[in-house]
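User: Could you check the structure of this?
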Amino acid sequence: MATTALADAGKLTVFDWSGYEDPGFFGSYVEKHGGPPSYTFFGSVDEAFTKLQSGFAADLAHPCSDAVRKWHAAGLLQPLDTSKLKNWDALLPEIKNVDGVTIDGEVWMMPFEWGNTGLIYRTDKISDDEISLQLLADPAYQGKVALPDGAMSSYALAALATGNGANYTNMTDEQFKAASDFLRSVHPNVRFYWADAGQMDQAMASGELDMGWAWNQSELNLIWNGTEAKMMRDVDKGVATWVCGYVHLKSSTTPTDQVYDLLNALSEPASGKYIIESWGYPHANEQAYPISDQAIIKQYGFDDPNAFFEGSLFFDAVNPELEAKMLKEFERIKAGF
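Assistant: Sure, the predicted structure tokens are below.
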């Protein structure tokens, strides 16, 4: 009977970032179905989109809000029924109102986690006064920098560094050139473009890197491992904010009730407490915050979501024509052209 239950649980397939198979996120699903869902992983949203367009099938996937309009336009998604999302009313209003969660009056993504993408640096090598996005291009840091192997995230960094963060989603030709030139100036200092954040974490912990553009979890991992590092969250110097969540794929074949069992498990306060305390990411459910470690809540500014969003570059959907230019030019930059 246990084997049968485990097999039934695994019939639900999730296309996700590596690490999100962590059972701390979906305890009530395991309790009900006797085991975890099955996972297949992607390294970037661009990779996930290409694979889904090529016919890869799954029940749920985990993009960020800036990708949802593109996935929706490509016919990859089916809308969510909020009456079946038992925690929908408890989700933070600021998160539910993010572009991409709702399109044309229908809900297409259930927000799960949100946070920063920012410049993480070794505080024993670079002072708080000295750190800046422009420091990434300083020849003194040749081979000491890591950037994500993702055009959208790297161009967000470049837009902030060139003073064009407010125009990130619809840059002019002049602004796009300035951002591209900045990434070219950083390229000689890049030791690698990371697809797995763990690669950057290990390299920074070992002293191989001094700086990297990455997510909240990397900062927390480094601190927990005794590395003197932190993220620059000065909105005047440049930091980005994102919201990610789960979408119901049109290719889904698992019974709908089982799909919503996982969505409801992911959106429970207990799941939120776990991701806040163990991963350093804020959760979409506002009921998770009173039951979580208040020192962590205050340290990372999760007690004031509005302040968290104000002043940072927010990852919204990029103009499709601009996105195509970013993808093409980023490959040239990585190749040294």
